[in-house]
């Protein structure tokens, strides 16, 4: 890809004179902050976007792609961060979808299964072709997505945040499989914010910043710290400073929570825990083990079926969301687009959406104070380093990381006594993640109780004082001192391969 530029109709420059090259049989990492232009560049390579200028050549021949179908026909495949699978179909049906072998007018199911099985064996992917995708863990779904691309002849694979929801053990297995693909001559583009994994798996790395490529490096030549500095453009960072915690009174207490939601078996099964003021309790677990339901029960998005929850000593079962907010609850939701922001509203409107009715935003007569709103907006933009034109810009114009900073600024601005942080830095760059992490620890140090739910084990271990592991809707492990546990131990518990005794788990309720 040579001299690629992409300028949208509203004048936004997503890519500016970018050069990007791949070698056959390499794993090439693509890194950069949110809004650096990585996604746009890959959409151009995969035919989802047309460049404003620049050329693409494949093995010396010029390429002009008008669709993803064109890219697939030239051996380019993309595995998106959010899986695009049909959950009610089997593994084999998903892999062969659209290219199924036929027997007369009908799909030949036996050949579909054989095709998927042979493909898995060829690339050393351990799969069951007849398994229904909706019943599978995320690590297996990841394999199905990759095999789906390989089934269509992909020789170049674009992997967007492929390890975002994997345990350490699943990540190790994925890396082994990617190395098999590399040895067979496939070329892999690995997009990730996890620099340790970039170092572990890639041969070369391209760094993007502000829509431009700022360097291509042999991965072995850079330390994680040097790579981080090149991504953000400054020498800063190092380890996040975390003072010892000083536990206070219990501000979140959950007792014997069970939730069925219409299912025959509980999605949550007798879950109890307590979070003290001045501490962060991390909840680790592979996605789909009850984390979403737990958060929605705590934030009143679902009605309690069994059990009791107290926040700041208040039984939440009959409380409105506003009452919880006024009682000191802050909530950073997992999905910033669906739950965390009003896409059609401005940054300033999103920032005051939970406080528009009270001082200082609202005056004695109930009238909004534009002066106070503007001051709060300017302060939030400065404190959280939100990259935007102005507070009047629509939040939908921001990159994912900057949108997340707006959500965090809103939720943390009132110094909540209780913060529920659900995947607070998913999909954000290292600079944005650091700002968010510092704010969470600042709240904890000022006496707030923080419940952190994250699939990122590095984040859980960096921020938490203690950790519980959710597996199959139950707390299966409790680590009262996060400094005494490894990611590998947590990973084994997340996979259900290790469990703690009921007596030890009971300690998290004290």
TrEMBL record:
Coiled-coil regions, chain positions: none
ABC transporter domain ranges (all copies): 2-235, 252-497
This protein's UniProt keywords: ATP-binding, Nucleotide-binding
Domain of life per record: Bacteria
Family annotation (CDD domains): ABC_Carb_Monos_I (cd03216), ABC_Carb_Monos_II (cd03215)
GO molecular-function term, one example from the UniProt record: ATP binding
Cross-referenced InterPro entries: AAA+_ATPase (IPR003593), ABC_carbohydrate_import_ATPase (IPR050107), ABC_transporter-like_ATP-bd (IPR003439), P-loop_NTPase (IPR027417)
PANTHER family (alphabetical): CARBOHYDRATE TRANSPORT ATP-BINDING PROTEIN MG119-RELATED, GUANOSINE IMPORT ATP-BINDING PROTEIN NUPO
This protein's name: ABC transporter ATP-binding protein
């Amino acid at each position: 890809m040579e001299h690629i530029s992409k300028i949208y109709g509203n004048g936004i420059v997503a890519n500016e004179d970018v050069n990007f090259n791949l070698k056959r049989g390499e794993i090439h990492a693509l890194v950069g902050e949110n809004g650096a232009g990585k996604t746009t560049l890959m959409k151009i390579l995969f035919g989802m976007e047309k460049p404003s200028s620049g050329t693409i050549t494949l093995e010396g021949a010029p390429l002009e792609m008008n669709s993803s179908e064109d890219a697939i026909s030239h051996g380019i495949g993309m595995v998106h961060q959010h899986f695009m699978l049909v959950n009610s179909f089997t593994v084999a049906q998903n892999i062969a979808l659209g290219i199924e072998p036929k027997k007369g007018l009908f799909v030949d199911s036996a050949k579909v299964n054989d095709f998927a099985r042979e493909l898995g064996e060829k690339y050393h992917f351990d799969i069951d072709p007849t398994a229904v995708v909706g019943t599978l863990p995320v690590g297996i779904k990841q394999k199905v997505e990759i095999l789906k691309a390989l089934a269509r002849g992909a020789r170049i694979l674009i992997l967007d945040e492929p390890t975002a929801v994997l345990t350490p053990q699943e990540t190790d297995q994925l890396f082994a499989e990617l190395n098999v693909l590399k040895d067979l001559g496939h070329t892999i583009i690995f997009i990730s914010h996890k620099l340790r994994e970039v170092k572990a798996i890639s041969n070369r790395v391209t760094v993007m910043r502000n829509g431009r490529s700022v360097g291509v490096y042999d991965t072995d030549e850079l330390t994680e710290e040097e790579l981080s500095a090149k991504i953000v453009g400054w020498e800063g960072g190092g380890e996040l400073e975390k003072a010892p915690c000083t536990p206070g009174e219990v501000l979140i207490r959950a007792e014997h929570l069970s939730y069925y939601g219409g299912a025959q078996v509980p999605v949550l099964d007798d879950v109890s825990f307590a979070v003290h003021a001045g501490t962060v309790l991390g909840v680790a677990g592979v996605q789909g083990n009850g984390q979403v339901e737990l958060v929605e029960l705590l934030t009143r998005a679902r009605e309690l079926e069994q059990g009791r929850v107290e926040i700041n000593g208040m039984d939440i079962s009959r409380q409105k969301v506003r009452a919880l907010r006024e009682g000191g609850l802050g909530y950073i939701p997992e999905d910033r687009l669906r739950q965390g922001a009003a896409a059609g509203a401005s940054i300033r409107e999103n920032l005051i959406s939970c406080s528009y009715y009270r001082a200082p935003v609202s005056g004695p007569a109930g009238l909004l104070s534009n002066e106070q709103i503007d001051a709060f907006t300017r302060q939030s933009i400065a404190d959280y380093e939100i990259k935007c034109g102005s507070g009047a810009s629509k939040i939908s114009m921001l990159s994912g990381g900057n949108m997340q900073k707006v959500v965090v600024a809103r939720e943390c601005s009132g110094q909540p006594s209780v913060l529920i942080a659900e995947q607070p830095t998913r999909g954000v760059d290292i600079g944005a993640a650091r700002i968010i992490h510092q704010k969470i620890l600042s709240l904890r140090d000022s006496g707030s109780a923080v419940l952190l739910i994250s699939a990122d084990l590095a984040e859980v271990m960096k921020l938490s004082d203690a950790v519980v592991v959710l597996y199959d809707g139950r707390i299966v492990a409790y680590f009262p001192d996060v400094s005494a546990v490894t990611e590998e131990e947590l990973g084994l518990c997340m996979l259900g391969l290790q469990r703690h005794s009921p007596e030890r788990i009971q300690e998290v309720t004290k």
